[in-house]
Write a structure and sequence with these properties.
Length: 209
């Protein structure tokens, strides 16, 4: 199965919460979840109650769609998290946050993870002064990430930085230099750094069956 290319708002409506697939637009009154408080598809008289498995599955889908991953990619991250020391769910979120496309987004250089992924794939992002065009590349503590010189004056990048400055959205585990369009991972992200409404334990329980 290929990557989903349909309307992003349908994914948010299916999960019933904003997944930040369109960046800060998801926090405004233009958000489809606020305008249409029902899932896409034919109208239903009432929603059926989800089973325990259904609740776990929906939570997995919510996290997977938020980070823009396919099923195989998500499962590989979970398997890696389960092999690491510590709490599996927390390890999983840390790995997701450390993906290069997410780091570019968290630094404020893109308005959404989808846009950040495009920047990476188009070779506009350097890690430790080397071009990296793989969105799934996992950064480590001390890694420096910057935007290539040829892309620093891009209108899309300028708009993203203005928005990030306005809402102060850069997390504490990252130092962002908006003037030089660069940033550094000062420490690894922990569970408290993930502010989205996520219950990672449900995913652990789902994969443990």
């Amino acid at each position: 199965m290929g990557r989903y290319t349909g309307p992003s708002c349908k994914l948010c409506r299916r999960e019933g919460v904003p997944l930040m697939l369109k960046g800060q637009r998801c926090l405004t009154d233009k958000c489809a979840v606020k305008k249409k408080k029902y899932p896409p598809g034919p109208p239903r008289k009432r929603r059926s109650k989800l089973s325990e498995y259904g609740i776990q599955l929906r939570e997995k889908q919510k996290i997977k769609k938020s980070y823009g991953l396919l099923e195989k990619q998500f499962k590989l991250i979970f398997e890696e998290a389960s092999r690491m020391k510590g709490v599996t769910g927390h390890n999983m979120l840390s790995l997701l946050e450390r993906r290069l496309d997410n780091v570019v987004y968290r630094m404020g250089f893109a308005t959404s993870r989808k846009q950040a992924r495009q920047f990476v794939q188009h070779r506009h992002v350097l890690v430790n002064d080397r071009i990296v065009d793989i969105p799934s590349f996992v950064v480590r503590e001390g890694f420096e990430v910057r935007i290539g010189d040829s892309f620093k004056e891009s209108a899309m990048l300028t708009d993203a930085v203005k928005l990030s400055k306005a809402i102060s959205s850069v997390p504490e585990w990252i130092n962002a230099d908006f003037e030089n369009k660069s940033g550094k991972v000062v420490r690894l992200p922990n569970r408290q750094d993930v502010t989205a409404n996520i219950n990672e334990q449900l995913v652990v329980e789902l994969y443990s069956k």
